[in-house]
Amino acid sequence: MGYDPFTMPSVSQALPSTPFNPYAEDHNPLAGAGSSYFATQNTFSAPSQPLQYHLYQPIASTRETLQPYQRQIYDFFLPPSLREDLQKKSEAARQVLASQPGVQLPSLQQYHSLVPLDTKLRNSTSSFGLSSWVWKATSRKNGNIYCLRRIEGIRLTNEEAIKAVNSWKKIIHPNIVTTVEAFTTREFNDSSLIFVHNYHPLSKTLAEHHFPVGNNRFGRPAPVPEKVLWGYLVQLSSALKAIHKAKLAARCIDINKVILTDKNHIRLGACSILDVLHFDTHRPVEDLQQEDFFHLGRLILSIAANTPLRNNADLRFPLDQLDRTYSPELKERITWLLSPPPAIAVKTADQLVYDLASHVDDMFVAVSNAQDETLNHLGRELENGRLVRLMAKLGTINERPEFDGDPNWSETDQRYTLKLFRDYVFHQVDAQGNPVLDLGHIISCLNKLDAGVEEKIYLTSRDHQSALIVSYKELKKQVNAAFGDLLKAGNKQQASRGY
Ligand SMILES: Nc1ncnc2c1ncn2[C@@H]1O[C@H](COP(=O)(O)OP(=O)(O)OP(=O)(O)O)[C@@H](O)[C@H]1O
User: Fold this and answer.
1) Whether residue 469 is found in the same domain as residue 360
2) Which atom of ligand 1 is nearest to the CA of 128?
3) Residues 295 and 400 grouped into a single domain
4) Mean pLDDT, to the nearest integer, of 175-189?
């Protein structure tokens, strides 16, 4: 195979060898002997040793040298790039703030362990006209992680204002970050409003993605591919369709408020906020909906022109320049979005989606292909999950020190056969007594056990004093019988869960 599966580092192996303390208050993996060292450093969030992602990559593909029926180790697991991506997201979601004097953040209602998401490390006033702060936090009620946005120094004069979020809570759409709730707090010695949204780890705003600060690229950056722009347009049009249908207006279509949560997958990130903040202005929702189209046009134009176009920016010049790089169709669509609504009729999101039909189809094909691929990977991991359950069952039986008052329970009857089987699967040695670490052998034995096939195997004890020939079918029965005994004795309801 040219690959040693047992050198694949686990997350904990990739970290320094500080002993893990499961009882530590700080659940950073570095908590323990090293935490006091790191706590003294001038870092804002808890420092974490970067995972050695390169160690997870296959060294080289040796597919050509294999027979078609032979498998590489990676054939059994998720593709490395997807695994790395998911691990990075999981690491970001689990990140905690090092407890340092002066940066302790309060718990807000049931939300605790706040960690800033705003990389600018300053409060900003840009999008809502008020200072806002963004954190991730864990809910004490369900353990889920959420995105909290604090709007600083706002006193609501109308009690009904905060109820404006209720209509938003019902909107569940792949291109809209779900609104969870909003509440006021005095935890910051002022009157602040907190908006709770779903959390999407490692997301970036479109501004951060397309106009990174301190971008040192020389010359003009390469234009964003037209396909990406159509993708954004289709996704945000679909979001608008859902929002307008609910008789709401998005009001937050802005490069700072649309977040990229996966490759080319965007979501409107700050819905409901302006509805609460401007509750008393009573602007007709129809007007706000028409403004959504303009903001969408400006957003796409900004990215196409490679320039953040703020309020009151002159859009004619970038629009005129557009057909140098992009198709007349894209220019026409953006022009439609930016132009005032026709006198006799209003623009509608339905009409927009209808006009984008051929691009919606492209997107549909791409998403369906991606889903097929994901289901394929999921199928593989399903197999792995099944084997883990089987190994968990075997683990509860093998070497159990005592059961039902019998210290020899795991060494007698069928349990003894299972012990020999364990040795057969995991403790094989070659003629020189060296360990044989063949994952293919382990997986194939466990699969046969799970299926309970008729195939017979020869099991022998370590001292070669006893030997037996047994089929996988019998072994399967024995596993189930022994595990059944354990289940009977334990809390049945509890123990049977998950096996
Ligand atoms: N729901 C969310 N889940 C995860 N991260 C989010 C979520 N919403 C926003 N973020 C991230 O939080 C950071 C700050 O978001 P914010 O909306 O404040 O952007 P900003 O550029 O600072 O805008 P502004 O200047 O208007 O404050 C961004 O990196 C963004 O990707």
Assistant:
1) no
2) 26
3) no
4) 95
CA of 257 to the centre of ligand 1 (A): 7
- Verify whether ligand 1 is closer than 6 Å to residue 320 (CB atom): no
Tens digits of residue pLDDT in 379-394: 888 888 899 999 999 9
Atom of ligand 1 nearest to the CA of 120: 22
- Does residue 237 line the site of ligand 1, with CB under 6 A? no
200 lines ligand 1 (CB under 6 A): yes
Q: Kindly report the protein residue whose alpha carbon is nearest to atom 8 of ligand 1.
A: 269
The structure's pTM equals 0.79
Contact 230, 362 (CB under 8 A): yes
Tokens of 470: 């047994």
Q: What is the CATH number of the domain that holds 440?
A: 1.10.287.3700
Q: Is the ipTM of this complex over 0.90?
A: yes
| Ligand 1 proximity of 130 Cβ (cutoff 6 Å) | no
Question: Which of 379, 414, 436 is the last residue in one of the domains?
Answer: 379
The residue type at 451: A
Q: What is the CATH number of the domain that holds 175?
A: 1.10.510.10
The verdict on the CB of residue 197 being under 6 Å from ligand 1 is yes
Q: What is the pLDDT at residue 314?
A: 86
Per residue in 112-136, pLDDT (tens digit) is: 999 999 876 555 565 788 888 999 9
| Antiparallel, parallel or unpaired: β 179-185 and 192-198 | antiparallel
Contacts with 437 (C-beta within 8 Å, 6 or more apart), sequence order: 4, 5, 6
Does residue 8 surpass a pLDDT of 80? no
Same domain, 364 and 422: no
Instruction: Assess whether 207 and 268 both reside in one domain.
Output: yes
Closest atom of ligand 1 to 133 CA is 18
Number of residues that make up the chain? 499
Domain boundary among 379, 395, 415: 379
Shortest-distance atom of ligand 1 to CA 204 = 31
Q: Does the beta carbon of 269 lie inside 6 Å of ligand 1?
A: yes
Hey, CA dihedral for 55, 61, 65, 71, is it positive or negative? Answer: positive
Domain range for 342 is: 88-96+105-379
Do residues 398 and 461 share a domain?
yes
**Sign of the torsion angle spanned by Cα atoms 311, 314, 315, 321:** negative
